[in-house]
Amino acid sequence: MKKTFVFILLLLFFKGHSQSKGMFSKDPIINLENFQKQRLHFGYFLGFNSFDFKIDYKTVSPDIQVEKTTGFNVGVVADLKLQEYVNLRLEPGLYQSKRTLHYPDLIREVDAIRDVNSTYIHFPLLLKFSSLRTGNIRPYLVGGLSTTLNLSSNAKSIDDNVQQRFRVKSWTSNYEVGFGIDFFSEYFIFSPSIRGCFGINDELIRDNDPNSPWTSNIESLKNRAILINFTFH
Questions:
Q1: In the 8-state DSSP scheme, what is residue 110?
Q2: 151: which of 26, 88, 185, 187 is 20 to 30 A away, CA to CA?
Q3: Domain residues for 85?
Q4: Which CATH number fits the domain that encloses residue 143?
């Protein structure tokens, strides 16, 4: 499904160039030449993610194994031009992911496996540093801070892992860094990008039992993720 989605996006992009001399030709037609002069513009993005956990332990023990799956992203973009090569971007979006924790010290499968389904409302505030535009291509770097609301956190539940309920905090903070490329077509800008997202604060809610085999030896549990977005302006 992911390959099909990427193929469709690339097909749409290259179709926008079909009437030009070509993006990589010696003297390409400059598309959307005045777009960079806009003070404020908007867009939307679709994409994929792979969320993981960074787990630090209080004492040496077998690592909890984290099985990752590919989730999806969708959201909107508001882009404010600060100067010619620097933009401030707000990219609120919905991110869905699933991780499965495997506890090697626990024998019974019902105890050894915990599914962590997450539905995030993600609020990144980023600075975009663009290079000089070359024809219809403009690479950029991006970085900043974000805060995330986990709608599936179980933070208010009184049940814990004894009742097979893995709990994390509702709000977390992160920092993000990445890069991308703006491709200027005849009618729109297509911007694939990849970012790393790294949790700042511990998000684990400990079990009621201080000696819980699921949470007692965890010093901190933090989000980390790879985010791949395809943005259209």
A1: H
A2: 88
A3: 2-232
A4: 2.40.160.20
Burial class (CB in 10 A: 0-12, 13-18, 19+), 59: exposed
Structure tokens at 68: 């990752």
Alpha-carbon gap, residue 53 to 35, rounded angstroms: 39
Tokens (6 digits) for 44: 């939307």
Residues in the chain: 233
| Residue 178 near residue 47 (C-beta atoms within 8 A) | no
Mapped onto helix, strand or coil, the DSSP state of residue 84 is coil
The pair phi, psi for residue 16, each rounded to 5°, is -65, -20
Q: Residue 180: which region, alpha, beta or left (left: phi > 0; alpha: psi -120 to 50)?
A: beta
Number of domains the chain contains: 1
> Where does residue 200 fall: left (phi above 0), alpha (psi -120 to 50 degrees), or beta otherwise?
alpha
Q: What is the pLDDT of residue 128?
A: 94
